[in-house]
Structure of MerR family transcriptional regulator:
Amino acid sequence: MRRGNKVLKVKEVSELIGISVRTLHHYDEIGLLSPEKMSGSGYRLYTDTDLEMLQQILFFKELGFPLKRIKDIINQPSFNRKEALETQRKMLLEKKKRLNQMLTLIDKTLKHEKGELELSNKERFEGFDFSKNPYEEEARERWGNEAVDKSKKKVSSMSTSEQKEMEGKMNAIYRRLAELRDSSPTSEESQEAIKEWYDFLNSNFGHQYSYEAFKGLGQMYVADERFTKNIDQFGEGLAKFMSEAMTAFADKNK
């Protein structure tokens, strides 16, 4: 791709894109987008590469990804911009399809309210789709299809009694961690308990989590309220404690 040589100051980027200077400064402060080039007077200078990354960030943001997660994704050594664009395109097309379905349903409902159209109870909910598992989607986005497919295959191959036994072990680990949540996540006892969680995941789901993936999973526990709510059923603040303990464990061992 042919690139221009011009670099832009933060105000020029703001005016070009329509994004506030404050937002760009925030991206810089949290390490999401920090241009390396500096002017003689100390101003950040945005290159074409920086603008490409900013576009990528805004695509992720449009799709509802939190900034913390966007940062994790684009900072991965394996991150590929072209592949990300292709995935984002598919996701946006799916979003467009869902929105069109919802708009059609709203139009039909409005006509029904005006007495212009009969709408059955079944037709009233045709635009809604609850068939997708949000946890599975989240995992697929974070680690790819292979890890999730292996996990599903391993669990589905278990008998009902084996699944219940595994669930019991998992809940026991959660309860042990919940008892420790007011202590330091880096303490010896906390690290022993979180290692038990790491070993449990690697032994029961048909996928070997790297330390980095384990750390990323912990970050998701606090970045995504669905995970937080689920985990905190065992004790308020457990998700945050586990996230910090998992980060410490991964950083120590990798």
Remarks:
- The chain has a mean pLDDT of 83.
- The radius of gyration is 23 Å.
- The beta strands are 8-9, 37-38, 44-46.
- DSSP finds twelve helices and three strands in the chain.
